[in-house]
Amino acid sequence: MFIAGGIAMNYYCGSHYTEDVDASFSKRLLLNFDELRVSYVRGDGSGSFLYLDPNYNMSFALIHEDFEADAVEWSGIAHETSRISVRVFSAVDLAVSKIARFSEQDREDILSLAAAGLIDATHVRERAHEALRDFIGDQRPVLLTIDRVCAEIAGIRQT
Questions:
Q1: Which residues form the domain of 90?
Q2: pLDDT tens digits, one per residue of 27-39
């Protein structure tokens, strides 16, 4: 299982709260999504839940072809008898995956990764341009976003 989105941001920065898990799998699985909802109590005592998002789809994201090989193992999260290993997108791949959609939340997430010292503009630009080889859709707005976000990352890293 490869974790992206808000859960991956929480893994790296603790800066993003979400109830849905954006994940892809290296193999095909038949899942009952209703059974994959977990209730829990937050640190402030309020109730919440976490669920695997059945609508998550990487097809339209900007994803590097080596994201699986470069993902980071999230040890201690899977049950010892589980046949599923849990891996988190590398910080640079997580940033790149947010570029095509580039909502305000995506921008904030990328800048949080930069502020934490986990990514830099050079590597994001390089990885994003490599990922563009497999991107489906108009690349022009994505190229503009790459330039914009890399300029903002460079500004953070200089301070």
A1: 2-158
A2: 666 666 566 677 7
